[in-house]
Amino acid sequence: SETQAAIEKLEAAIEDAIATDCFDRAEALEEERRAAEARLLAARRDLEELDRRMAALLKEAEELEAAQASLESAIEQAVASDEYDRAEELEQQRKAADERLGAVRGALE
């Protein structure tokens, strides 16, 4: 990464500064290097958190798709049994699952 390359350049510059007895410069470069390492660590943590969120969203999407299929089957059964109130209730649940699935898919993009 760019940050890792910058860290390596700073390390080389630190060595050069020490070799030429520019200790104040070496100290300033060392502070820069530490800050760059902190940014790199923060970026890695952010990526790990993003990976966790993506995995959770993918799992939720799978669960919602399964719930939709189950609800559609239950709706068909309710209609076949002339349970129209139950079918309407299930349809509302299916619509809510569909809306949530749309939101999850949007978050995944």
Structure description:
This protein is mostly helical and 109 residues long. The chain has one domain (2-108). The protein has helices spanning 2-19, 23-80, 84-108. α1 (2-19) runs antiparallel to α2. The longest helix is centred in the middle third of the chain and has 58 residues, at 23-80. The protein starts with a helix and ends with a helix. The relative contact order is 0.09. Keywords: Coiled coil. This is UVR domain-containing protein. Residues 19-107 form a coiled coil.
Low-confidence stretches: none
Work out the count of structural domains.
Answer: 1
Strand content: under 5%
Q: What's the tally of helices?
A: 3
State the total count of DSSP E strands. 0
Class inferred from helices and paired strands: mainly alpha
Shape summary: rod-shaped
Brief digest:
With 109 residues, the protein is mainly α. The protein has helices at residues 2-19, 23-80, 84-108.
For this entry, give a set of tags.
0% strand
Could you give the topology of this structure?
Elements lengths: L1 H18 L3 H58 L3 H25 L1
Helix pairs in contact: 1-2, 2-3
